[in-house]
Backbone:
């Protein structure tokens, strides 16, 4: 149990009221400090396009912000047990603000990675510092609720960032989002240093505090409660990372939602996470089986949600969106009861170090999950392409009509364009794909948008058409007939296969080499 909170019940009435101010300030400071980092997933499409990033590189941006806390959380925990949270947390939030301001002048991806390392170092004090400050002001009967509200700061930052940052990136550029993130973090630092006060605990409680060696403190790992905290934390924080990084990309690529609509689903998932952190933590205050049982409930819920997402249900825009909101509620909401459990399991007068140690351990999952998930997404795309080159069962017959302008329109970098076109030549020369280039000759029905017609094994046909808001699947015979007529009209304008190959080779040689 926490030694600093033993005197909470004896606080004067005005102090009991002021603890809600402490809770509000701690929540705002966490949200403000995490504001930019929480926007990286929502800006995934913009960052991939503007900085020419792969999904794995996008995930690495999040990992960079989480790398410094591996050590920083341990240092922060020690500082919090020795010094006033007011200055430790305020200094950390100020470092976040300064780093983001400098990052707005970064020349490219590598510099942005370095900036996010510094951001992570500053944020190392905000997370355990805010949790300790709230835990010291609230007793057991309301600590879960208070911790849940406090931990709602992170998904609150995600909600605000997902709603605001993509709009700023569209209107200005990604550098403007760093400037805004810097300003918000600075406001958080000022608020905490202005309003935070330590709880008026007894002098006896203060005198009882002693400083132990680092080796002695690390013995916390032998406590069963700490082992359970670490194992569950590593699992659940991986889910949290997946929701933040892959929601928009998954819904855009798999469920055919536009980037804007997918970002709105991420906002809804983050909002569900806010509700989850408060509701689940409050539930843990009243649950006879304890706070850890609530964490286990969350683990079972997210397992069910992820299993549903990898079934055909995950390809439906509506069902996939609902599943991500479900994952947001439990996959983000778990943190409220979990952090309260960690704080209450800490040895007397070592709350800060216990929080820092547990969070530092779970940082391994925070760091590894985003790039790992990004690599898995890339691998899934590669596996889809392997359908065209497989031997058993035989690959499907694939006929493609491609606009000439797509050969010369820069997507990514010249190196990427060269590799893409060379790969296209490779699959065509293997005979698995039939490709014809449609010369740019003004208006024709193909200019209205791309579409695909697929013939299934039983000879029934379905079609898919790209639209501004989202893709549209069709199986109505009249719709299929219309698309067949459009296909014949466009094919009549296309070059023969051999001339199409020669055109691609010429473009690669003259423009992209």
Residues:
């Amino acid at each position: 149990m926490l030694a600093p909170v033993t005197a909470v019940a004896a606080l004067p009435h005005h102090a009991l009221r002021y603890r809600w101010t402490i809770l509000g300030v701690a929540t705002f400071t966490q949200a403000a400090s995490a504001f930019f980092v929480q926007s990286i997933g929502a800006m995934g499409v913009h960052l991939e396009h503007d900085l020419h990033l792969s999904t794995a590189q996008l995930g690495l941006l999040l990992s960079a912000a989480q790398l410094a806390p591996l050590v920083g959380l341990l240092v922060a925990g020690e500082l919090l047990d020795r010094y006033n949270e007011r200055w430790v947390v305020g200094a950390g939030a100020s470092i976040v603000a300064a780093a983001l301001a400098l990052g707005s002048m970064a020349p490219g991806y590598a510099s942005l990675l370095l900036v996010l390392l510094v951001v992570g170092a500053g944020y190392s004090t905000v997370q355990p510092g805010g949790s300790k400050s709230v835990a010291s002001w609230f007793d057991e009967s309301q600590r879960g609720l208070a911790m849940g509200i406090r931990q709602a700061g992170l998904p609150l930052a995600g909600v605000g960032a997902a709603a605001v940052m993509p709009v700023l990136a569209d209107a200005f550029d990604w550098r403007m989002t760093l400037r805004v993130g810097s300003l918000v973090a600075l406001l958080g630092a000022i608020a905490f240093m202005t309003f935070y006060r330590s709880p008026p605990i007894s002098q006896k409680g203060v005198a009882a505090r002693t400083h132990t060696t680092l080796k002695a403190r690390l013995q916390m790992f032998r406590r069963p409660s700490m082992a359970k905290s670490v194992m569950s934390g590593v699992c659940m924080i991986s889910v949290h990372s997946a929701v933040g990084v892959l929601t928009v990309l998954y819904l855009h690529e798999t469920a055919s939602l536009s980037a804007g609509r997918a970002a709105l689903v991420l906002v809804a998932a983050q909002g569900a996470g806010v509700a989850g952190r408060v509701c689940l933590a409050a539930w843990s205050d009243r649950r006879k089986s304890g706070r850890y049982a609530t964490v286990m409930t969350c683990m079972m819920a997210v397992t069910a949600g992820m299993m549903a997402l990898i079934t055909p249900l995950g390809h439906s825009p509506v069902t996939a969106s609902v599943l991500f909101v479900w994952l947001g509620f439990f996959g983000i909401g778990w943190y409220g009861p979990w952090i309260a459990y960690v704080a209450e399991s800490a040895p007397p007068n070592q709350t800060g170090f216990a929080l820092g140690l547990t969070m530092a351990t779970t940082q391994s999952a925070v760091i590894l999950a985003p790039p790992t998930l990004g690599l898995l997404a890339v691998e899934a795309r590669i596996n889809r392409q392997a359908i065209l080159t497989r031997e058993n069962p035989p690959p499907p017959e694939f006929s493609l009509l491609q606009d000439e302008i797509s050969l010369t329109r820069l997507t990514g970098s010249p190196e990427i364009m060269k590799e893409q076109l060379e790969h296209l030549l490779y699959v065509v020369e293997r005979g698995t794909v039939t490709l014809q280039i449609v010369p740019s000759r003004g208006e024709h029905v193909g200019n209205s948008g791309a579409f695909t017609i697929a013939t299934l094994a039983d000879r029934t046909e379905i079609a898919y058409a790209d639209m501004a808001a989202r893709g549209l699947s069709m199986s109505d015979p009249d719709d299929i007939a219309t698309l067949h007529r459009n296909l014949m009209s466009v094919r009549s304008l296309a070059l023969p296969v051999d001339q199409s190959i020669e055109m691609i080779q010429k473009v690669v040689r003259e423009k992209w080499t």
In short: The first strand starts at residue 398 and ends at 403. The chain has a mean pLDDT of 80. The chain has 21 helices and five strands. The two ends are 67 Å apart (CA to CA).
